[in-house]
Inverse folding.
């Protein structure tokens, strides 16, 4: 079964750091782009970051550039999101997803995890 | 690229035909996907490439459009279709989602 399972969400103080993990199974992890998407409470979806299969390219939404870092360990079938200098506005459910990237219009986030909650508050 | 969905919410009955629109602030060819999200659950991919139905998605869902104007249609609304729907452009970074359309009873 194709599956993504996030972990690492927690309550953290403003200015703090947190590392999210996403464990993949059921597909050849090293062949796919991966992504993080977040959803603030009661709000819509916001794309956060993407990483290429060989980790040679990364992309971020402007609001997290310089604070968040996406990485992956293909041997461990794992995706990560290192979040530093956290702010109240980073409070959200964070989803990892598989990004089917064929380099054309068929690209989409086809497999999603269940999400992990990050709360930034004092 | 900004995506504007309309309406932001709608009320419908089982069996109704429902249409949701998504307008892009610039042309994105067919680089558009649609997702369904139920409360407390992860989004689910419905349509990609503007018109291609994801495997396992019922045929009552369909997508159309290209360029800047896109439509998601549910031909006959079923009880399990009450959810929030999002469009997403994958044409250029930053990837963006529409604001969502909540389909209510």
């Amino acid at each position: 079964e194709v599956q993504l399972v996030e972990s690492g969400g927690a309550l953290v103080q403003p200015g703090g750091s947190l590392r999210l993990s996403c464990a993949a199974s059921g597909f050849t992890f090293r062949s796919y782009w991966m992504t993080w998407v977040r959803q603030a409470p009661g709000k819509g979806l916001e794309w956060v970051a993407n990483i290429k299969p060989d980790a040679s390219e990364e992309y971020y939404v402007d609001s997290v550039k310089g604070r968040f870092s996406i990485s992956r360990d293909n041997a461990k079938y794992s995706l990560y999101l290192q979040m530093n200098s956290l702010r109240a506005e980073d409070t959200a459910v964070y989803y990892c997803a598989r990004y089917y990237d064929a380099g054309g219009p068929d690209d989409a986030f086809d497999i999603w995890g269940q999400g992990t909650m990050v709360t930034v508050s004092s | 690229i900004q995506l504007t969905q309309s309406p932001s919410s709608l009320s419908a009955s089982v069996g109704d035909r429902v249409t949701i629109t998504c307008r892009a602030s610039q042309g994105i060819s067919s680089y558009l996907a649609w997702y369904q999200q139920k409360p407390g659950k992860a989004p689910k991919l419905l349509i990609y490439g503007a018109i291609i139905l994801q495997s396992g998605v019922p045929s009552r869902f369909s997508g159309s459009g290209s360029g800047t104007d896109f439509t998601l249609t549910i031909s006959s609304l079923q009880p399990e279709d009450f959810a929030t729907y999002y469009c997403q452009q994958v044409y250029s970074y930053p990837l963006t989602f529409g604001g969502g359309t909540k389909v209510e009873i």
Summary: The radius of gyration of chain B is 13 Å. The longest strand of chain B covers residues 18-24. Chain B touches chain A at residues 29-33, 35, 37, 41-45, 48-50, 52, 54, 86, 88, 90, 93-100 (CB under 8 Å). The mean pLDDT of chain B is 97.
